[in-house]
Design a protein that fits this description.
Elements: E1 10-13, E2 17-18, E3 26-27, E4 29-33, H1 39-47, E5 52-54, E6 57-61, E7 70-75, H2 83-91, E8 96-100, H3 106-119, H4 130-138, E9 144-150, E10 156-165, E11 168-176, H5 185-200, E12 204-210, E13 226-230, E14 233-236, H6 255-260, E15 271-272
Length: 274
């Protein structure tokens, strides 16, 4: 008996888990598999609607009592570095950027472990071993690059797993040397991705989620030209306080409505999974 993949993506919802950004909240994620010949257009299309990629899965928060996780991107044409960001660029001007195919190395993993130990020792990735790290980097069905940043002697100091979309670059996950706080390496990697997008003629840099009220995500509001996906459309971030209402318990639509409103690349309607 022959079996074939469904012609339209199937969407599923995770079980509730404690929210990593807002205390006392529970999070759920809406997700679908990313596979086959349609992986690239699906990744392109759903990224424009607030989804993010993790290996061969696309996901978006769909919490029952909160919609605070807002996908964020920088409009490259509208971006102007601040004075502090210009200083960050100058401080790191000697770093060498090298973009490679998505292949994990021991040097990357060692840097990743130092980064987690310093910044996210109790986070969900704290126990990730070398095989899981390799899967995070290498299991990608779309156009992905590992963008590394190294000193003149070749020492790796920062790294970003980056997807190439039809309208921008998406920073899937980045990590950097934690023993150089004055270098602002995390900020520099974002600034350099703005430069990468500009060099490639791509209009956006996708940053992941920004969460009003979360100190962990507050730094993203410091980039000019920032847009967030809220209310089904991209909106320019002018006043972060204007988005605090998205954390209200009554703000979110039912999951069935969220799925029904997803626009798929082939224009066929989305279907909730069984």
């Amino acid at each position: 008996m022959r079996h074939s993949l469904p012609t339209a993506p199937q969407f599923y919802v995770t079980a509730p888990q404690p929210c990593p950004y807002l205390p006392g909240r529970m999070e759920r994620k809406l997700f679908t598999a990313l596979q086959g010949e349609g992986a690239r257009p699906l990744n392109d299309g759903l990224s424009k609607q607030g989804f993010r990629r993790s290996q061969n899965v696309l996901y978006r928060p769909c919490c029952s009592d909160c919609a605070a996780c807002l996908s964020a991107r920088i409009d490259v044409a509208a971006f102007t570095p601040s004075k502090s960001q210009k200083r960050t660029i100058r401080r790191n001007a000697r770093l060498i950027r090298r973009a490679t195919s998505p292949w994990a190395t021991e040097e990357q993993y060692a840097l990743f472990r130092r980064y987690l130990a310093s910044r996210h020792a109790t986070g969900g990735m704290a126990d990730m071993d070398t095989f899981e790290f390799a899967a995070m980097v290498e299991e990608t069905p779309v156009r992905t690059r590992v963008v590394e940043y190294a000193d003149a002697d070749g020492t790796l100091v920062a790294c970003c797993l980056t997807d190439i979309l039809d309208d921008g670059v998406s920073m899937v996950y980045s990590f950097f040397e934690p023993d150089r706080p004055g270098a602002s390496l995390g900020t520099y990697v974002i600034l350099d991705h703005v430069a990468i997008a500009r060099e490639a003629g791509l209009p956006y840099v996708y940053l992941g989620y920004w969460v009003p009220g979360s100190d962990k995500m507050g730094y993203k509001a410091g980039f000019s030209g920032l847009e967030v996906h809220a209310g089904g459309r991209w909106q320019r971030m002018r006043d972060p306080e204007a988005f605090r209402a998205h954390a209200h318990p009554l703000i979110n639509d039912p999951v069935s409505e969220q799925v029904a409103n997803i626009s798929l690349p082939d224009t066929r309607p989305a279907r909730p999974g069984g």
